[in-house]
Every structure is written in C-alpha cells, then in structure tokens.
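Why this split exists: single-chain examples teach little about how molecules sit against one another. For that reason, every record in the complexes split bundles all components of an assembly together and asks for one structure covering all of them. Below is a record exactly as it appears in the raw files.
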Amino acid sequence: MSAVILPAFIALNFLIGAIRRVPVFDAFIEGAKGAIRLMADIFPYLAAVLIAVSLFRESGLSAYLAKVASPLFGFLGIPPELTELIVVRPMSGSGSIGLLTEVYRLYGADSFPARAASVIVGSSETVFYVAALYGGGVVKKYRGAVAIALVATFAGTVISCLLCRLM
Amino acid sequence: MNVVFFLLFFTSLAYMLFVNPAGAVSAALAGAENAVTLSIKMLSVYALWLGVLGVMRKNGVAAFLSKAFRPLTKRLFKGETEETHSLISQNLAANFLGIGSAATPLGIEAVKAMQGGEGVAKDNTVLFVVVNACGVQLLPATIIALRAQAGSASPADILLPTVLSTLVTAVIGVVLCFLTRKRAKA
C-alpha cells in the first residue's frame, strides 16, 4: 500500500503537469534549486542536536535516566521494559527504531511490550529533530513549543499503552 | 532550545568525565558524523521532493491540496497569507499520507513564510511546529514492516491504536498551544 503511494503520487503529478502543458522540467529545476541552500541552513542545527544526543546515549545517562524513571512509568501503566525507548524517542528516530527492534527480539513481536512500543513509536515524532529542523535558521526562540510537544507526546505514550491493553 | 541543548550537552559531558572520559570526544564526533551522513541523505531527498514540489506548484495540485485542507488550516492558523496556507496544507497532507520526507521541506518553507524574518516564534509557528512534532501520521508503514520482519502473527493490528493515539496526541498539543497562548496574553 504505502509502497505504491509515493511513486504513484509523483507520477500523477507529472501526468497532470503534462496534460496542463506545464514545462515540467523547468518547474522541477525551479523547485530543486532550493535543496542545497536548505541543507546548508539546516546542517548546523542537525549537527548540534545529533552531537548532543550521541553524548547523551554514549555517556549512559539515557539508560540511567530510564532506570530512575521506570517506577513512575510503571505507575502510569507503561511497561518498565520500554523506559529507555521512551527517553530516546523524542531525540533520535534511528535510535528509537533500534530500541524497538530490540524489544521485538527480547519479548517477541506480539507481546504486550512489543505492541505498546510499536504504537508509541508509530504515533509520535522525533520532537527535538523536528523542532531543530523546522526552525532551521529562522526561529531563534521557540516560546514553549518544544515543551508543549514533549508533554503531548508523553500523554500520547500513556494513552498508547492504555489503548494496547484495550485493543 | 538553548536550555535543552545546554542540559543535554553539559550533563552528558560532565557525567562522562567521571565514567568514560576517553570516549567523550569520539561520541561527539560520532554524532557529528551522523549529521553529515543524514545531511547527504536528506539533500537527495530534498532535491527530489523540492523538484516534485516545483511541479506541484505549476500544475495546480498544490492549489488543490491547499483547498482541501483550507477549512482546517484557516481555523487553526489565523491571519496567514494564501501562499502560507497552501504550504501548511501541503505539509499536513504529506504528513497524513506518511510521506515524512516530503513534509519536511514544505514545513520549513511554511515556518519561513509565517515568521517573515522574525526570530521569535509567532503563535502560528508554535502551533505548527507542535502539530508536526506530535507526528500526525496515519499509516505507520515502517513499524508494520518491522513487526512483520520480527515474525508477528498480525503485524498490522497496531494500526488502529496508533492512529487513535496520534490523533489524541495532536489534539492535546493543539489544546495546550491555545491554553498557553491565552495565558501569555492575559
């Protein structure tokens, strides 16, 4: 299904362009021109966030934080096996996918922790990454956007676990 | 972001000084290396999607998408220009379809348009970033594929709870935005 969406979407765009006699090549170039400048604007933000995240994980601080937080998480109905995943989720997309596959391997893909982990990862975003990227070079002060997104994401995590118990 | 960055960076480094000082610089460099590899990957993604976007602008699809999402964006993002609404609508459409790679460049352009050179995030920018950071995705294709690979009996059974959870998360985010906004004005 989703394998079809992307290519079909692009093909459809080109087809509509051709039918409406749009100079498709020129229009593509016009758009693609922005790619390098966009990347140059974003790179420093990306580097800063990923360096910080790498330090956080490699230092063992994220695992430590996960251990400290796990009683509280248990109280909210979050399986203790998932604490590190939840700590890493807003910071690193590839990191959380890595931890997710680890949960599959350890507990089986159809276990409760695995299903809850799937829903948690699937229903959330890499908050810090989105914030750094979208602000890319323009926004200097976020006025609470990151905090709001984190609170909403955490509420979503609790709800994910609850839904997995029910469904 | 400055506070978050400082806390993350400083506490990690300080902790590492005691536990594993030799690994600190290499961990930082590993992060930077991730950024470089990711940038190159994303540059290719941007080249493709900004190109397709260029076609969408000329062939009327962009205008169609923005019309489809207009009732929603008009209500949420008041006082923006037609062009900005179009960008926001396309970003939301790409998110819903699960084309995150297409959503990102659109989102960055939308933020630029909303800010208009202003450095402090405007109300609409805060809302927009929150909606995007809450991950309004309706088809968790990657996760389902990963579960299938891990030998799940019904890998797609997480679809419904995921969709519900993502919608609830987004609604909570939007409500929080409006709540904090009022308090700031009062």
